[in-house]
Automatic annotation (TrEMBL), chain A:
GO terms for molecular function: ATP binding; ATP hydrolysis activity. Gene3D superfamilies: CBS-domain, P-loop containing nucleotide triphosphate hydrolases. It comes from the Bacteria. GO terms for biological process: amino acid transport; glycine betaine transport; response to osmotic stress. This is Glycine/betaine ABC transporter ATPase. Keywords: Amino-acid transport, ATP-binding, CBS domain, Nucleotide-binding, Transport. The keyword Transit peptide does not apply. Residues 348-404 form the CBS domain. PROSITE patterns: ABC_TRANSPORTER_1, ABC_TRANSPORTER_2, CBS.
UniProtKB/TrEMBL annotation, chain B:
This is Glycine/betaine ABC transporter permease. The keyword Transmembrane applies. The keyword Transmembrane helix applies. The chain crosses the membrane at residues 44-63, 70-87, 93-116, 137-164, 196-213, 220-242, 248-265. Pfam families: BPD_transp_1 (PF00528). CDD domains: TM_PBP2 (cd06261). It is found in: Cell membrane. Belongs to the binding-protein-dependent transport system permease family. PANTHER family: GLYCINE BETAINE/PROLINE BETAINE TRANSPORT SYSTEM PERMEASE PROTEIN PROW, GLYCINE BETAINE_PROLINE BETAINE TRANSPORT SYSTEM PERMEASE PROTEIN PROW. PROSITE patterns: ABC_TM1 (PS50928). GO terms for cellular component: ATP-binding cassette (ABC) transporter complex. Keywords: Cell membrane, Membrane, Transmembrane, Transmembrane helix, Transport.
Length: 412, 277
């Protein structure tokens, strides 16, 4: 997973639109809603009291319906919109306190942006567009063209350098936008509804492209989206906004399983939980495990199984790596052979299947359905993380179904 | 009601102009100096060149910018102008148009850029531009003569006043038409105010600015006849002389010369603007 080094710290960020917005700040502190503020002061609340932390190398998705303030929030991070209160700091540098020159330097080198409307310069070629940020930074032509060419290669646009943006399809234009953002090699990349203007098919393709890039380069990305499936697909963590407030922040699984209120729940209505929840989210550890050193003792194993009242047990080595699965019957058979050379290993069920902890429920469904025993879940080092039984699987589906019916009943 | 004049504004204006003429004429004559220098420079240059060289230059320019049709039309027009005996007058008019356009661009583009970026300045300058475009030119010919005396340079000054508004207006419009998201994108990547202007706003406004230039050139040409009233030479003078002596033929060939020049300049500059698009 992501390293937990803090990249960006956002505290109590607030933005009101209208004249003399500071006068509404005390009202907001008293807990007035967006509607109250509009009625009493005529001011529109863009963002109220948003605080969150973004860790290095993660994709942090800010999600909400239109008008929930997500675009305003992201623009306050690089101060395209000036916040009325609160602070943004990166590596301890307070961005909100920077003067104009410092801000320009910060935007040149530390934070780039990709726009919903692509915002490519129509009078420049694809290469010049990709090199735009570098040109602003005063980098020499050969150097910036070299770096822009590399960035274009990264996004799969090699060979298009001399085209004009209007000769490209929407998806390709946004690749140029992405290349422009990557070329300056920023510490953080802001993506404001970057794929929302694209066809669904192209959108998915771009998401995959982004994830592929992310696997290689591990950038810190703040991604704005109103599309939940997109958020779940690419987000390491999600922040959900409603009416200018950031109401929940967590991993997709976390938000899906423990929504803080009906608004969040309603968001997930219609989302297929099997595409979000992974094996480790639903793995349970209520099956017995047997740690063996050499061969393993059949009798003690038999004892463990019968006392747990389960039919299967999972055999691990001292490093918790999965060795095999035994059933009450297979141990019984071995014991009945009365062969003193028989060890626990001889009782292992043949062809043991297991699933990786990051596989989604969708991925593991066929295995769980066909397996006679609960499917063991392992991590990349083959360490045992729990099991997924048919009952467990069905239970998870049922619980999520219940959540969305509940939201429906609330009229959301 | 309103049978008598209550506010003697006409008297005030006369007094004011007379006071300026009596006390500060030297300032105005100094203002005229750069205009005069530019004008005579261009005029001498054009007249010193052999007509054939001028024709070849115009034809090549038209060919590069606007294609062979305009090029062919330009060569025919220039030859016809020469055969009609209008060559020298045409060169004077061309020099007057060019020098007034040069000053219009020098003053108009920066003003237009500023108006494009500042709503307050736009509001301030708009009524002045309206006045410059709609005030009948005869109204300011008299004070111009009083302050700058007569001749080609005074004619150029009157032409500048008349033809300055379109380039300011269209430059401002061009800057305003640049999509806000492009300006925002440039800012997000760390562009300074100046970089936004030079790398985004001006390049994208260029077609509109060139359309303004085209308008300015056309307006400048249409002032040629009026300028002839205050002693400026060029294609306007045969028209004025023809009018005064009821010589229809003379007035007509002056008119033909102006029309041919107007069409030539219009086609060439419009093609240049479209090429930028």
């Amino acid at each position: 997973m992501t390293s937990q080094k803090v990249m960006l710290e956002v505290q109590n960020l607030t933005k009101l639109f209208g004249s003399n917005p500071k006068r509404a700040l005390p009202l907001l502190e008293q807990g007035a809603t967006k509607e109250d503020i509009l009625q009493q002061t005529g001011l529109t609340v863009g963002v109220h009291d948003a605080s969150f932390t973004v860790y290095e190398g993660e994709i942090f998705v800010i999600m909400g319906l239109s008008g929930s303030g997500k675009s305003t929030l992201v623009r306050m991070l690089n101060r395209l919109i000036e916040p009325n209160a609160g602070s943004v700091s990166m590596h301890g540098n307070n961005i909100t306190k920077m003067n104009h020159d410092e801000l320009v330097q910060f935007r040149l080198h530390n934070m780039s942006m990709v726009f919903q409307s692509f915002a490519l310069m129509p009078h420049l070629s694809v290469l010049e567009n990709a090199a735009f940020g570098l040109e602003l930074a005063g980098i020499s032509k050969p150097e910036r063209h070299k770096r822009a060419t590399q960035a274009l290669e990264q996004v799969g646009l090699a060979g298009w350098e001399n085209s004009r943006p209007d000769q490209l399809s929407g998806g390709m234009q946004q690749r140029v936008g992405l290349a422009r953002g990557l070329a300056v090699d920023p510490e953080i990349m802001l993506m404001d509804e970057a794929f929302s203007a694209l066809d669904p098919l192209i959108r998915t393709e771009m998401q995959d492209e982004l994830l592929k890039l992310q696997e290689k380069y591990r950038r810190t990305i703040i991604f704005i989206s109103h599309d939940l499936n997109e958020a779940l697909r690419i987000g390491d963590r999600i922040g959900i906004m409603e009416g200018g407030r950031l109401i929940q922040v967590g991993t997709p699984e976390d938000v899906l399983q423990n929504p803080v209120n009906d608004y969040v729940r309603a968001f997930f209505k219609g989302v297929d939980p099997t595409s979000v929840l992974s094996a480790k989210d639903i793995a349970s550890s209520n099956y017995p495990t047997i740690i063996i050193t050499k061969g393993g003792n059949l009798r003690t194993s038999h004892e463990i199984l019968s006392s747990s009242e389960r039919d299967y047990a999972f055999v691990l080595d001292p490093q918790h790596q999965l060795q095999g699965v035994v059933s009450a019957d297979s141990i019984q058979d071995m014991l009945e052979e009365k062969n003193p050379d028989n060890t626990l290993r001889d009782a292992f069920l043949p062809h043991i299947l297991s699933v990786h902890e990051d596989d989604t429920m969708q991925d593991i469904l066929p295995l769980v359905a066909h397996c006679t025993y609960p499917v063991p879940v392992i991590d990349s080092e083959n360490r045992f993380k729990g099991v997924v039984s048919k009952a467990r699987f069905l239970n998870t589906l049922h619980r999520n179904g219940e959540a969305s019916t509940h939201a429906k009943a609330q009229g959301m | 009601m309103f049978e008598e004049q209550v506010i003697p504004l006409d008297v005030w204006i006369s007094t004011c102009i007379n006071w300026l003429v009596d006390n500060h004429r030297s300032i105005f004559l100094k203002l005229k100096w750069p205009v005069e220098q530019t004008l005579t420079g261009i005029e001498h240059g054009l007249n010193a060149l052999h007509p054939l060289i001028v024709i070849i230059a115009v034809v090549l320019l038209a060919w590069r910018l606007a294609g062979w049709r305009t090029s062919l039309f330009s060569s025919c027009s220039l030859i016809l102008i020469g055969l009609l005996g209008l060559w020298e007058n045409t060169m004077i008019t061309l020099a007057m148009v060019l020098s007034s356009v040069i000053f219009c661009v020098i003053a108009g583009v920066p003003l237009g850029i500023y108006a494009g970026r500042s709503d307050r300045f736009e509001q301030f300058i708009r009524p002045m531009l309206d006045a410059m475009q709609t005030t009948p030119s005869f109204v300011y010919l008299v004070p111009i003569v009083m302050l700058f005396s007569i001749g080609n340079a005074a004619g150029v000054l009157a032409t500048i006043i008349f033809s300055l508004p379109p380039i300011i207006r269209l430059t401002s419009l061009g800057i305003r038409q640049v999509p806000q998201e492009l300006v925002e994108a440039a800012e997000a990547f760390g562009a300074t105010n100046f970089q936004v202007l030079v790398k985004v706003q001006i390049p994208l406004a260029m077609p509109t600015i060139l359309a303004g230039l085209n308008q300015t050139i056309m307006m400048a040409l249409s002032m040629v006849v009026v300028a002839a009233l205050i002693g400026a030479g060029g294609l306007g003078s045969p028209v004025i002389i023809g009018l005064n002596s009821l010589d229809i033929g003379l007035a007509a060939i002056g008119g033909i010369g102006i029309v041919l020049m107007a069409v030539m300049l219009d086609r060439i500059t419009q093609a240049a603007a479209q090429k930028k698009n």
